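I trust your eye. Have a critical look at both lines of this record:
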Amino acid sequence: MHLQPSSRQCELIALARRLACERFAPRAEGHDRAASFPFDDYADLRTEGLLDLCVPERYGGLGADYETYCLVAEQLAQGNASTALTFNMHCLTMLMMGPIADNMPMSAAARERHEKLRTAKYREVVEDGAFYGQPHSEPVEEGETDTRLGVGGRRFGTTARKVDGGYVVNGRKFFVSLAGCAPYYATPAIRLGPEPWIERTLYLQVPKDAPGVSFPGEWDPMGMRGTVSRDMSQEDVFVPDDAEVLPPGCSGRCTTPFPTSS
C-alpha cells in the first residue's frame, strides 16, 4: 500500500502549488470583494494545461484520476478557494464523460455514440480551453408535491421534452457556480414520458448563451463570492441530441456509486 504521491502526482502538486502561491493568492481578495469570477485564474489553468487535468490521455489530456484531481485541487484552494471549488465542477464533468462512463453498463451502440460525442467535447477543452459548470441543485417550492423522485429522493424539476433533433429544456437550478461564466453547463434533466424515471434521466451540455438561458439572482457569501453561484433559468431552451454529456439513463445510474458535484 503506497501512501506517498507518485512522481507524476508530485509534479502536478508542485505546479498547482506554484500557481496558487504566485498567481491566485495575490488576486483572491480582489475577486472576493468584487464578487468577480476569477477568469485570470482560469487563463493560468489553461496556459499550464490544467483544464485538461481529467481529460484522458488518448484525447490529449493529462489523464488524472479522481485521487490526483483531489491532490491538485487541495493546492489550488490554498490560493483561491473559489477557483478550486469551481474547478471541481469542470473536472468532475470530465471524469463523468471518461472513466465513470467507461465503467457503466451500456449497449455497444450507446458506447460507440458516446465515444463520438465525448471526443468532440474533449477536443473543445484541450484545443479551445472550454470549461464546464455543473448545475445540479434545484429549489423545492413551498406547497409543491414531490412526485419526481430519483436516487435518494432527489428531485428532477428540470424537464426535457424530446423534439426532432434534440430536446426542449425547462427548469431552474440554484447555487450554480460559474453562473454566466462557463461556456457550458453539464445539466441534469429528466425527459418527459411514461418510461421508468431512471431511463429518462439526461445529462446535457447547455451553452451559457443558448436562447432561453439566464442567470438571475444575487450571490454574496463572504469568502466565496468569486464562485458567482447565482441561479440558472432555462425557458424553452433547445439542446441538440449531440449535446448529451452521458447517454440517456446513465445520469440516474451513476448518481449513487460515483462522486459528483451538487
User: Anything to note?
Assistant: The two ends are 31 Å apart (CA to CA). The chain has a mean pLDDT of 91. The first helix runs from residue 7 to 34.
